[in-house]
Amino acid sequence: MTEAEDLLFVNDFVLIEQHCTEVTVAFEDLAVADFFDDQIDRGYRPEQFARIWIHTHPGDSPQPSHVDVETFERVFGHCDWAVMFIIAQGGKAYAELSWRHGGPAALRMNVKVDYSQPFASSGQHTWNAEYRSCVHKQHALNPYDFDEWEGWFSENENAPELNRDPTRDFSTS
Ligand SMILES: [Zn+2]
Q: From ligand 1's centre to the CA of 56, what distance in Å?
C-alpha cells in the first residue's frame, strides 16, 4: 500500500492468501479478486495497492530467481509500471522498477526505511496471525523447482551487504 501522492512510498503491507514452496508462490485467484474489490471500495486506486510486489527470500540472497523474473513479467507485465522488491532473511534487499511507456525498460532502485514519516506501533501478533491465515506451505513436487533453487543460491555470492544503519540508504546495486 502506498501514499496517493507518492506511489513509491510504501506505508503498509497486505498478505494475499497464497501457497508457497521455497521457490514458488501461487496466489489464490479469489483472494486476489477480493483484495482488489476491498481496496477499490475503500477508495484506493490500483497504483496504490497493485504495483509493488514484495517478497522475502530465505537465506542471504535477495537476487530474483528465474521464477521471480517470470512471475513478475506474467503478473505485472501488463501494468504501466511495477516494482519487484525482495528482502532476504539476512537483510539484503533488491528492488527493480519496470515500466512500459517509452520502454519497456527496467531500473534498479535504491530503497530505504523513512523514519521521518509518522507510523503506527508495530503489531507482531497481528502480523503472525495474518501470516498463518494467508501463507500455506506447499511441498515442491516439480524437480524443476529444485534446479531453480540451486542456481538461485550459487549465482549470488557477490550480492551487496545491506546497510544496517536504517537512517541511511541501503544500496541494492
Ligand atoms: Zn524470490
A: 7
Residues with Cβ within 5 Å of ion ligand 1? 68
Ligand 1 center–CA 120 separation, angstroms: 28
Ligand 1 centroid–CA 142 distance in Å is 17
Q: What does pTM read for this prediction?
A: 0.73
Q: Which three cell numbers stand for residue 32?
A: 486476489
Q: C-alpha distances in angstroms, 58 versus 3, 41, 75, 87, 146?
A: 29, 35, 22, 9, 14
What single DSSP character describes residue 2? B
Delimit the domains of the chain by residue range. Answer: 18-154
- The CATH code that applies to domain 18-154 is 3.40.140
| 102-139 pLDDT per residue, tens | 777 899 999 988 889 888 888 899 999 999 999 999 87
Q: Is residue 2 over pLDDT 90?
A: yes
Ligand 1 mean position, distance from CA 59 (Å): 11
